[in-house]
Amino acid sequence: MLCSRRSLVRVAVALGTLSTHAQAQVPAYTLTDVGPIYAAGTEYVVGVNDLGQVTATTPNRQAFVWDAGQVTVLPPLEPANFGYPHDLTNGGVVIGDGMIAVQSHATIWQSGVPLDLGALGGVSSHAVRGNESGQLVGWWQLAGGGVEIHAFLYDAGTFTDLGGLGGVRAYAKAINATGTVAGFSWLTNDVGGHAFVWSAGTMTDIAAWSGADRASVANAINDEGVVVGTIEAPFGNDNLAFVYENGQMSTLPGFPGAQSSVPEAINNLRQVAGWTQYPTGGPFATLFQNGLAYDLNTMIPSGSGWQLLGASDINDSGQIVGLGIYQGTAHAFLLTPNSIVGRFCTSTVNSTGSACTIDCTGLPSVALNQFDLVATGAVPNAPGLFFYNSGQMQVPFGNGYLCVGGGAPAIFRLGPPAFSNGTGVAVRHVDFDTAPAGSGPGAILPLATWNFQYYYRDQAAGGARFNLSDAISVTFVP
């Protein structure tokens, strides 16, 4: 639920900060069934744009777009053949593969009409990702039946061969708004493969430090140039998740003991979606954020009947799509960030004849960082202060009641003072990037619940000459 004025739902359960792989007690996401999909081989990719429109492949291997419950099946390149979409721009362009006979051709669907981009003179081609400028990336297999595969950038009708890192195969897997491409290439003498970033004609081996024996793959890149992918562990066959930024590669924290941690997508809020698998058992959809990993199965309503196997895309609203099992069948899912906001305690009438109430605006999402507290009905043009704590109470304090406190470790003040305006309204943005909400004991993390109240001066009332609002309890989402 979004924060809104006067539209709050009572919360009875307070959550503490969750540790990695902890079980959520309330759903952090609303789960929507996009429908059955084809899930054989690698053709189970589900894509989502910033409008929440989803693209995937039907069980009989036809490309489709899902939009708020309405499904539009996209025509194939030739009758009775197949289509495999991989990405969907905000402009509605679907990017993927169409089939000509038994060969795959890079394809885009515009206004529902397929356009064959061809096989570039080779055997087959694949288009996997695009941006809002009309650029897209992928790879093609050269003619002659050999193993040679080249990465390409398609822009305004022209294909550019991106080259490689010395080997005979290179794959472009992602592109951002500036045209920077991420992927992987075999190395000289075809020994191993490394993740790369390509920009303005130059390909950079971003895993050169790891040596030829450790394979790596770049799967996604956001508009800030942050790259995520996988790299082999120094010992054994485990695959570790990595993030690459400003020339430095570091491990993306995952689940201890996992055999594979695989990021598939990153948004501009640095939320990463993918999947994880232990040495035994199947994969599970995973969200990587702020140094923690979350099993998305623990963040949906309990008893839903779903098993979320893998997340393949995430948009800038934090919506996640992927593959799951529902009633024994492969389905695409859409997860939309959720939150629970509740009101408690009582406020008393102040010298203006009003009782001050506190609300919030925006989505209580740590990644979005667009959460504001709003107090209405305070004394006009008076100083005040928003504060929060994990505990709830109702004890006389000043001319009103202290509703927030008693919980560990302390009361956290959201400074500087928030002065009310001429109508008695005060606003404070809660910044999840700076203390106290961004770090330390008052850090607000996904799935944690905190309680908020507003203190304000009321000189004309006499008595203690200050009063307080009522309080709200907010469970935050990633």
List the defining traits of the structure above:
478 residues, mainly beta, Neuraminidase, Immunoglobulin-like, 2 domains, five-stranded antiparallel β-sheet
Give an overview of the whole structure.
With 478 residues, the protein is mainly β. The protein folds into two domains: 309 residues, TolB, C-terminal domain (Neuraminidase), CATH 2.120.10.30; 136 residues, Immunoglobulin-like (Sandwich). It has no helices and 38 strands. It has a five-stranded antiparallel sheet with strand order 29-38-37-32-35, with no helix packed on it. The protein has a four-stranded antiparallel sheet with strand order 1-28-27-26, with no helix packed on it. Strand 11 and strand 12 form a beta hairpin. The radius of gyration is 26 Å and the shape is elongated.
Strand order of the largest sheet: 29-38-37-32-35
Q: What's the average pLDDT? A: 90
The stretches of 5 or more residues where confidence is low (pLDDT under 50) are 4-25
The CATH superfamily label of the largest domain reads TolB, C-terminal domain
Specify Rg, calculated over alpha carbons: 26 Å
The end-to-end distance, rounded to whole angstroms, is: 13 Å
Do you know the CATH topology of the largest domain? Neuraminidase
- What is the CATH architecture assignment of the largest domain? 6 Propeller
Write down the domain tally.
2
Strand content: over 45%
Q: What is the CATH top level name of the largest domain?
A: Mainly Beta
Structural class: mainly beta
Biggest pleated-sheet summary = 5 strands, antiparallel
Share of residues in helices: under 10%
